[in-house]
């Protein structure tokens, strides 16, 4: 089957939310405890600002969304609309890194190049706007892909979920 990449639309929200929940619930199991996976839903999710900004993509196969993710010219590094600590200020491309954001792949479609398609598109768009580097808040499940794409570890932070779980998040970056 052929994979196609396009910008996400508000009408895609229900399908993307279902995909995200499935990806978090299934793809994190090899890296986190059940409590950490449950807690991950608090800090991960859709950021509708990315859709409004035209920086969020979906990958489709036969008309069905099998992946989504994007980049941002705004300060928020990770998290969805419901996450604390959002920063919607515009970044300065000359001095600040663009953000690679909210990457999710349907569990039945992993390791088919979907994440790479989204990262390539996001990096190209960020470069076109003058960004010299990019950063992300990577999950343990996503880290191998991001390393293959040239991202390097900057620091590890811990997110504390309401259920008491501590979820590691890796801040990674690369020059564009």
Automatic annotation (TrEMBL):
InterPro entries named in the record: Acyl_CoA_acyltransferase, Bact_Acetyltransf, GNAT_dom
Swiss-Prot/TrEMBL keywords: Acyltransferase, Transferase
Gene Ontology MF, one: acyltransferase activity, transferring groups other than amino-acyl groups
Presence of the UniProt keyword Transport in the record: no
CDD domains, per the entry: NAT_SF (cd04301)
The keyword Acyltransferase belongs to this UniProt entry's keyword annotation: yes
The organism's place on the tree of life at top rank: Bacteria
Full protein name: N-acetyltransferase domain-containing protein
